[in-house]
Amino acid sequence: MAGNDLVERYIAAVKFWLPEKLREDIGAELAEDIRCEIEEAEKAKGRPLTEDEVAEILKARGRPMSVAARYQPQRHLIGPELFPLYIFVLKVVAVISLIPPIVAWFVWSFDRYASPVPASIASPFTGFLMAFAVVTLVFALIEHKGIDITKKAEFNPKTLRPVVDRNRIPRSDSIAEIIGPMIGIGFYAAGYFSQTTYHFPGGGSITVAPEWIGFWRIIIALAVFDIALGAINLFKPYWSGPRIVAQLILNLAKAAAFCWLFQSHVVRAIEGVPNNAVSQFQMMSDKLAEFAQPFFGIIAAIIIVKALWRLVLTLKPRSAMA
Amino acid sequence: MWSTQDQALFENLRLELRRGSVILAVLAALRTEQYGYTLRKRLEEGGMPVDEGTLYPLLRRLESQGLLESQWREEDKRKKRFYRRTPAGTEIFARLMAEWQSIGEAVAHLHTVGESGHGGQ
């Protein structure tokens, strides 16, 4: 038979991928099956098959590794039961591993006195890769040891979390939106924010920038809108387009007011405290002034993204079950 | 005329449907003792072709489950592995056949009910 050598090589290649104890048995059966197929083809053609024709038969059977794989039980590093949890943990880890590089980038980019960013912190890729490897290893061990971390046996539907309507504004949020600004207004009415010098109970004083008074006037004006919006939300607790836009404008205005205040080098003078505390306060005030604009940029971006996300959720049609 | 996508979808669903039936077909065909190649031919002639990459691992699995037994014997001066159903295999096969018929009847009934408009929309 012209293709005998090919068949033997094919069988040897399949056997290579099989566990030791199955090799001879499966190899012999497979060889017999191939020989039967070749014999039948030769009978039909009335002549021995050429090497190319034998090669075609073997090609149709598939690669040796794939053939061998079919004889073995399905194996996986992380099985279908654990897989959704594994993906969830990876997503959380991906987000967490991105935070240190972002913070490092922020601090080191604006603080000219800081030392260079350590490579281990600066590279989000390295951090995530490490975390990915550790999470995968832990899940593979759990799978291998057969540990039931999903607690299937103890599952009780009554312990499931209630379904949350993402468009509903929690009552607690609305109440906080009303009470917080009211407290602020109370302090303002009592005159706490109408002065620029404050005395410490233990002696000494701090003098803040004149912008402090203007800042609080803006905040108190915005607080009135906050209370009005909170009251509407309390009685009609569902997000709507106009309410999202109103909340967006309010939040941006508050962030801009804080930015303006910080830029003014808010701490102007401190008296009656140790010199090192004075320099600490002064440094903090300078840092706030230096970082005010980029910080406002980030906060504004977060506020806008949050509002857009809320808008998408509000405009998205609700499912029939909701 | 079916699109390539429809054809591929049909092919996937057909394979899925056939997957469970292959076991029944193999158990049915092994009422009499056969070796791998003749079993393949018999399945093919019976309208249930099964490729060798599926058949041989399945035979091993059914054997390890005690539904089949096998024996290496010489025939035409060549060693061949012959398979046949065990008594347990015969019993399981009978139960599976009953289940198979009941599924067929249930699907046919559901289809008829759907066509005559009872309970359908």
What does this structure look like?
The complex is a heterodimer of chains A (322) and B (121). Chain A is mainly alpha-helical and 322 residues long. Chain A has 3 domains: 4-70, no CATH class; 83-159, no CATH class; 171-315. Chain A contains 11 helices and 3 strands. In chain A, strand 1 and strand 2 form a beta hairpin. In chain A, helix 1 runs antiparallel to helix 2, helix 1 (4-16) packs across helix 4 (64-70) and helix 9 runs antiparallel to helix 10 (241-263). Chain B is an alpha+beta fold and 121 residues long. Chain B has one domain (4-116): Winged helix-like DNA-binding domain superfamily/Winged helix DNA-binding domain (Arc Repressor Mutant, subunit A, Orthogonal Bundle). Helices cover 65% and strands 15% of the residues of chain B. Chain B is built from 4 helices and 3 strands. Chain B has a 3-stranded antiparallel β-sheet. In chain B, strand 2 and strand 3 (78-85) form a beta hairpin. Chain B is globular and about 60 Å long. The mean pLDDT of chain B is 89. The chains are: A mainly alpha (322), B alpha+beta (121). The A-B interface holds A 26, 28-30, 32-33, 35-37, 61-62, 66-67, 70-71 and B 35-37, 40, 52-54, 56-57, 60, 72, 78-81.
